[in-house]
Amino acid sequence: MATIITKHERSSTRKSNRLDEFGSPIIKHKAAFKISTSGKSKKFVDVDLADTPIDELEAISPRDSRRATTGKRFSSDAPSPMSAIMDHPDHTTEPSIDIWQAAKVADVSALRYHLYHSKNARELVNQRDHEQDSTLLHILCSQNRQPFQALQVLLEYGADPTARNIYGVQALHSVCLNCPTPLESIRLLLKYGATPNAKDGDGWTPLHYTARFCPEPLQSIMLLVGAGANINATDASNKTPMFCLLANGDFHVIVQWMLASGADTTITGEFLDQKTGKTRLGTVLSQATKYTRLESATIMLQTTVGKDAIKQALKVAESREVTLRSKDADEKQSEAQTKALERLLIIKSMLEGRLNKDTVTHRKRTSFFQFINSSFRKEKAATVVIQ
């Protein structure tokens, strides 16, 4: 009889030929054991847990086994065969923190322990706190900059990725807000059913959050749009994700990509005047002017831009120029203001040039049509006289 010495870690699952009571294929979880028949000869053998009765584990023949070639080997003082199979290393040691604190600090081992030993893991993983109506997913994604591994644990145990907190925020919003490199976490949440067009209480979608807060948002934006995110979704102020992108930085390459992907530059959002408290309307061209995004403004002015949009942007430029020329700033701020003012004046000059060009073109076009109409009327009058 073969004696099992230790478990060999192995991650593998496949469908069995056997069916469960509901007629579905059994998923076979595979483990490998180092066995010995003479005390000296040691080989590795794979065991399919779904098909191997407990009392047969001690009677595995090495001749019928397939040697395992991957994984880490454990010492001879490993736990008993069944505990080695059934217990993940994170399941065996009780943590000193509760599951809420574990989510707050992204403690993967503690999360696994609490969920594994829970009577109803799915119910526990979707419980809510009493302050902000948040689930463990909300806590994890709002408190950690790199939540991927802990996020995977919660989702595997049945966490609902579409759950909202008191502010209407979902995990996908929080990841895009707090994680500097959210790509893998976004992909994971989408895989488990997160909604790419979900809106929070202010109407922001994950695309708004990514465009506004991600340091390098291109790949995340492309992933969300590829998953069905609306590139022209508007928030409570009627602003699209491109407004957020321009507030984040002068990402002119992303602006080009978004324009090629159908971003609408004619949508007018509401701008709040900090001095008067009143709102005014403006397009993304006004947003680029407000934040002095020179490269992005240049690209936009190469597209079809309405006369009203240019006039709105010019008003923003005039107001912003007054602010930047103020001298109530220290030396460091003054240097930044000087550079911003230089960019703003270039943008303002381009806006005025485009407006004048469009005005001249409009006048020429008007004069041309007036000439055509005049000639037509003269010709018609001459025809009448001849008749």
Distance between the termini: 122 Å
Mean pLDDT: 78
What's the main sheet like?
A: 4 strands, antiparallel
Task: Work out the number of β strands.
Answer: 6
What's the number of helices?
16
The helicity comes to 40-55%
Percentage beta strand: 5-15%
Question: What Rg is obtained from the alpha carbons, in whole angstroms?
Answer: 32 Å
Low-pLDDT runs: 1-38, 41-87
Helix-strand category: alpha+beta
What is the string of helix and strand elements?
EEEEHHHHHHHHHHHHEEHHHH
Q: State the shape.
A: elongated
Region (Disordered): 60-83
ANK repeats: 132-166, 202-236
Pfam family, one: Ank_2
Keywords: ANK repeat, Repeat
Please explain how this structure is put together.
47% of the residues lie in helices and 10% in strands. By secondary structure, it is α+β, with helices and mostly antiparallel strands. Strands 1, 2, 3 and 4 form a four-stranded antiparallel beta sheet that branches. A two-stranded antiparallel sheet has the order 5-6. Helix 12 packs parallel to helix 14 (294-300) and helix 13 (284-290) packs parallel to helix 15.
Can you tag this structure with a few keywords?
387 residues; alpha+beta; 4-stranded antiparallel β-sheet; two-stranded antiparallel sheet; 6 strands; elongated; ANK repeat; Ankyrin_rpt
Please describe the topology of this protein:
Elements: E1 3-8, E2 13-19, E3 25-36, E4 42-48, H1 81-86, H2 99-104, H3 108-116, H4 121-125, H5 136-143, H6 148-156, H7 171-178, H8 183-191, H9 206-213, H10 218-226, H11 241-248, H12 252-260, E5 269-272, E6 279-282, H13 284-290, H14 294-300, H15 307-324, H16 331-386
Antiparallel strand pairs: 1-3, 2-3, 3-4, 5-6
